[in-house]
Design brief:
This protein is mainly α and 283 residues long. Helix content is 81%, strand content 0%. The chain is built from 13 helices and no strands.
């Protein structure tokens, strides 16, 4: 028994080595660098003072939080409705729906930015259609803004949300629906009183994943906006690959702030999920 356990531990070593090299060591390095000046050595809070007092970085925090929050909300809403519909239409459509989700979930980064430029850019297809038919909302839509970036983020949030929510729908047993029907409940009462409460912890956990996914997204935003919109990932990258000099301390401070924003939302959602589950058990 002990020998088998040692084999399992040995098999885990490559994974543990990867975690150490690419997760633990960089994490502590970034935290330590955030308290060091860009020139020289020692301890300083100047990097954090710069982050919270300079307008550029204040806007980066604000924009990143706004885009992550709104795109996560609409991503989970659209994903929920899509998955719910696929579950009710039939198994064949559900398989097709999941296949499409797996395909479009890999369409991100530079190709996604290019696709949106062709579709919704200033000289894009929708702008041309809007000019042709006199639709001002389509003609005047500006993709290169915070709202335009939010729309792009919603695109890659929806497949991820749907893929995470789908197992929760599969866990809802047919017998529960039949029991609700026998007791005189309709589809609305089943979903409002049984179905949605059961999958709510999954929805809360999914929101955490979507929020972190959006907060750390970099490639699409940079390909489309470059430095036109201040976002935390873009500012972090700019601190480490600056045109003039690297500012590791500032980049570390920005990274720590971004991690705190992630951890805070994750802890809040975990608390809400636990409280909800306790309330459901008591009920």
């Amino acid at each position: 028994m002990m020998k088998r356990k040692n084999i399992y531990i040995l098999a885990l070593m490559p994974f543990l080595a990867l975690i150490l090299m690419y997760e633990i060591v960089p994490l502590f390095t970034i935290i330590i660098e955030s308290f060091q000046p860009d020139k020289g050595t020692g301890f300083t809070l100047e990097n954090y003072h710069t982050v919270f007092t300079k307008l550029l970085y204040q806007k980066a925090i604000e924009n990143s939080f706004f885009i992550s929050l709104i795109s996560s909300f609409f991503g989970i809403l659209i994903g929920f409705l899509g998955t719910w519909s696929a579950e009710h239409i039939g198994k064949g459509f559900r398989r097709l729906y999941m296949t499409i989700l797996n395909m479009v979930s890999n369409f991100a980064g530079v190709p996604l930015a290019f696709a949106y430029m062709i579709l919704l850019g200033n000289a894009g297809l929708m702008a041309q259609v809007g000019r042709e038919f006199g639709i001002e909302a389509m003609t005047n839509f500006d993709l290169y803004t915070k709202n335009g970036m939010t729309l792009i983020y919603v695109y890659f949030q929806v497949p991820l949300a749907s893929l995470l929510i789908a197992p929760a729908f599969a866990g809802i047993k047919k017998e529960w629906k039949e029991a609700s029907l026998i007791l005189g409940g309709g589809a609305w009462s089943f979903w409002t009183k049984i179905g949605i409460p059961i999958i709510t912890p999954t929805l809360i956990g999914t929101f955490s994943v979507l929020y972190c996914n959006a907060l750390a997204a970099y490639a699409t935003a940079y390909a489309l906006m470059m430095n036109g919109l201040s976002l935390l990932p873009i500012q972090v990258a700019g601190s480490y690959v600056g045109d003039v000099q690297m500012r590791k301390g500032l980049g570390g401070a920005l990274s720590v702030v971004m991690m705190i924003m992630m951890v805070a939302v994750i802890l809040l959602n975990n608390r809400l999920s636990k409280n909800f589950q306790k309330g459901r058990v008591k009920a």
